[in-house]
Specification:
Helix content is 33%, strand content 28%. A 7-stranded mixed β-sheet has the order 3-2-1-4-5-7-6, with helices on both faces. The chain has helices at residues 3-9, 18-28, 33-40, 45-56, 73-80, 93-96, 141-148, 169-178, and strands spanning 63-67, 85-90, 106-109, 123-132, 149-160, 182-193, 198-207. It has a single domain, classed as Vaccinia Virus protein VP39 (Rossmann fold), CATH 3.40.50.150. By secondary structure, the protein is α/β, with parallel strands linked by helices.
């Protein structure tokens, strides 16, 4: 999809600066408009990624870091499969304030383009859904996801198809696999936001250390 067409479908995708994205999300979170729009738009990212993740993660007790958790939509879906140990981070405090009480063990405001404030090998898995998109989190975040994930842990994410090559996610993922830092288990085109004609690649990789 051409950049000029995106603003009519998802205005967020026209933003260029982190501070503009943060303001947009803070406004979007008012009166829970974000969740209402996601429902109206039939946003399938959290459901699809959770379904794929569940095929590979058999232990329901694992610690899962939800990078760019927003209002907790991924946590809600994963809970349906019996997972329960969620740790969330997002750039927007307004969205974090809308996460259902008790769903996450920890919620923190964080810029995922910077070093993540957790020690090496802390988590069994990282989920990152809807965050690799225009003016959001860039490819180097994948290095941080690997750092905080244990050996043989899982990283499950979506990448907006419009930035997959433009931002260099294709090259980054190839580099990580070529250097044996992770191994591809799943990578396919998901529905994501089909109602807005916005698709995304859905990837699930095993961390190798």
């Amino acid at each position: 999809m051409a950049q000029k067409d995106i603003g009519n479908k998802v205005p967020l995708h026209t933003l260029k600066k982190t501070e503009d994205v943060m303001k947009f999300y803070d406004d979007w979170g008012k009166e829970n408009k974000y969740d209402k729009d996601m429902s109206d738009w039939n946003y399938t990212g959290p459901k699809e990624t959770s379904e794929v993740f569940n095929k590979y993660a058999n232990d329901k007790e694992i610690k899962i870091y939800d990078a760019g958790c927003g209002t907790g939509l991924v946590g809600v879906e994963l809970k349906r499969y019996g997972f329960k140990n969620f740790y969330g981070a997002d750039l927007s405090q307004n969205l974090l304030d809308l996460v259902p009480n008790g769903l996450y063990h920890l919620l923190e405001k964080a810029d995922l383009n910077k070093k993540i404030n957790h020690e090496d090998n802390k988590f069994d898995a990282v989920m990152c859904v809807g965050t690799f998109t225009y003016a959001h989190v860039k490819p180097p975040a994948l290095d941080e996801f690997i750092r905080i994930t244990k050996n043989k842990g899982l990283i499950c994410f979506t990448i907006n198809e419009g930035i997959h090559e433009e931002y260099g996610f294709d090259k980054k993922l190839k580099e990580l696999c070529d250097t044996n830092k992770c191994k591809k288990l799943e990578f396919f085109k998901s529905q994501y936001l089909a109602s807005k004609e916005v698709n995304a690649w859905l990837g699930l990789y095993e961390v190798m250390k």
